[in-house]
Design goal:
The chain is built from 16 helices and four strands. The chain is mainly alpha-helical. Strands 2-1-3-4 form a four-stranded mixed sheet, with helices on both faces. Helix 3 links the parallel strand 1 and strand 2. The longest helix is centred in the middle third of the chain and has 33 residues. The radius of gyration is 30 Å and the shape is elongated. One of its GO terms (molecular function) is ABC-type transporter activity. InterPro entries: ABC2_TM. It is a multi-pass membrane protein.
Length: 394
C-alpha cells in the first residue's frame, strides 16, 4: 500500500462525493438546518406544557350543591370555568377543557362544621396538558385546604405555625454552567453520536455498492493502486464525511442554542474549555473511524445501492439503542464497561464532558478499546475488499 495511491483514491472519492448534491443536502446541510428547527419545536412544545399559564386552563365544574364560596375561589385563581356544557366528559376527551371538578352536595357545609370532605378531579392523562392542569388544580385546592386548617387552629387558639416546625430552605450549589451542561447532556451526546455513526452511511453505500451498480468499480480495480490502497482511500473518504456530518450537527445545535437560549436554560452562561472541546473532537473521530469501516464492509458485501441501504439501516439502531439507554443516567451512574463499548463509550464521555468532568481512566478505556474495534473493522473491510466473491457476487 502506497500513501500516494491512497491520497489519489481519497481525492477522487471526495470529488465524486461532493459533486453529488444529495450528499451535501443529507450529510451536511440537513443536520445543520434541521436540528435548529427540530429543537425549536420540541423545546417550544415542552415549554408550552411545563409552563402552562393558569388563564389557559379551562375546566368544567359539576357542583352537586350550592358551593358558591369554593367556586369563587377557583375563579380567583385565574382558572377559566366553562359554562353550560352538555357533556363535559366528551369535551374533556376532545381536549376542549383540561379537567372536570366535581364538588359534592354538602362540601362547604361539612367544612364549616369542622368535618372533612372530598373533591373529585377528572383529567385525561393521555393528554399532557390535561395532566399538567390537574397538578396545578391540585395545588390550588391544597392551598384552599391549608387556609381552612389555619382558620380552624386559630379558632382553637393554636398558632398555625405549629404545622410547620421545620422551614426548608433550598440552596442550589451547582453553577449556571453546570446546570446548563446537565440539561445539554440529555440531548447533545445522543445527536452527536448518532450523526457521527451514521453520517458516513450515504458515502459508504455509494463508494462500494453504488460503484458496483454503476459498473465503475471493476475499472478502478485494474489501475495501479492495490486493492488495499483503494479500500483505504474509500475508508478515509467515508470517515471524513462522518466527521463533517458530526460537525454539521454540532453547528446546528449551536445555532439552536444561540437562537433560543431560554429554551435550554443557557442564559449565556455555558462554556467549555479548549481541552474539553479537543477531547470531544478526538472521541468523534474515533467513533467515525469505527463505523466508517463497518459501513464500508457492509456496502462492499452488498450487490446494489438498494441492498446496501438495507444492510446499513440497522446501523442506525445500533446508535439509537445505547443513546436512549444512557439518556437519563447521571455520569456517576455509568458503569465503567460502558466506556469500552462503541457508541456507549462515545455518549458516556460526551455526557461526562458536558458536566465538566474529565476522567482520564474513562478516556483511556475508550481510546484503547476503540483502537481494537478500528483494527478489527478495517481488517473485515479489507478482507471483503480482497475477495472476488464479495466484490462481484451475483
Amino acid at each position: 500500500m502506497k500513501v500516494k495511491h491512497v491520497y489519489i483514491v481519497l481525492k477522487k472519492e471526495m470529488k465524486d462525493i461532493l459533486r453529488d448534491k444529495r450528499t451535501w443536502i443529507v450529510t451536511l446541510l440537513l443536520p445543520a438546518l434541521l436540528i435548529p428547527v427540530m429543537m425549536y419545536f420540541i423545546m417550544g412544545g415542552v415549554q408550552s406544557i411545563s409552563e402552562q399559564k393558569t388563564e389557559e386552563i379551562k375546566v368544567a365544574v359539576q357542583d352537586e350543591g350550592n358551593n358558591v364560596q369554593f367556586i369563587n375561589f377557583l375563579k380567583s385563581t385565574g382558572i377559566s370555568i366553562a359554562e353550560s356544557l352538555q357533556n363535559p366528559k366528551a369535551d374533556l376527551e376532545k381536549g376542549n377543557i383540561r379537567a372536570i371538578i366535581v364538588i359534592p352536595y354538602n362540601f362547604e357545609k361539612d367544612l364549616r362544621e369542622g368535618k372533612n370532605s372530598n373533591i373529585i378531579i377528572q383529567s385525561d392523562d393521555s393528554n399532557l396538558k390535561s395532566a399538567t392542569a390537574r397538578g396545578i388544580i391540585e395545588n390550588f385546592i391544597k392551598e384552599y385546604a391549608n387556609a381552612i386548617v389555619r382558620e380552624r387552629l386559630k379558632a382553637k387558639g393554636i398558632d398555625p405555625s405549629i404545622l410547620e416546625p421545620i422551614a426548608i430552605k433550598v440552596e442550589n450549589i451547582a453553577s449556571e454552567n453546570k446546570m446548563a451542561g446537565s440539561f445539554l447532556s440529555f440531548i447533545v451526546p445522543m445527536l452527536l453520536a448518532l450523526w457521527t455513526a451514521t453520517g458516513g452511511m450515504g458515502a459508504a453505500i455509494d463508494l462500494a455498492a453504488g460503484e458496483k451498480e454503476r459498473g465503475t468499480l471493476e475499472p478502478l480495480l485494474t489501475t495501479s493502486p492495490t486493492r488495499l490502497s483503494i479500500m483505504t482511500g474509500k475508508y478515509l473518504a467515508v470517515t471524513i464525511m462522518a466527521i463533517l456530518s458530526a460537525a454539521a450537527s454540532l453547528i446546528g445545535l449551536i445555532m439552536a442554542f444561540t437562537m433560543n437560549p431560554k429554551y435550554f436554560g443557557l442564559n449565556g452562561g455555558f462554556y467549555m474549555t479548549g481541552s474539553v472541546i479537543g477531547i470531544m473532537i478526538v472521541v468523534s473521530i474515533f467513533t467515525a473511524l469505527i463505523f466508517a469501516a463497518l459501513e464500508l464492509a457492509l456496502s462492499t458485501y452488498a450487490r446494489s445501492f438498494k441492498e446496501g441501504q438495507t444492510y446499513l439501516t440497522p446501523v442506525t439502531f445500533l446508535a439509537l439503542i445505547p443513546a436512549y439507554m444512557i439518556m437519563y443516567k447521571m455520569p456517576n451512574e455509568l458503569p465503567q464497561y460502558y466506556f469500552a463499548i462503541p457508541i456507549f463509550g462515545t455518549i458516556s464521555l460526551f455526557k461526562e464532558l458536558l458536566y465538566g468532568m474529565v476522567n482520564i481512566s474513562h478516556i483511556g478505556i475508550f481510546i484503547v478499546s476503540s483502537i481494537v474495534y478500528i483494527i478489527v473493522a478495517i481488517w473485515i473491510a479489507s478482507l471483503l475488499f480482497k475477495q472476488e466473491w464479495a466484490l462481484f457476487r451475483m
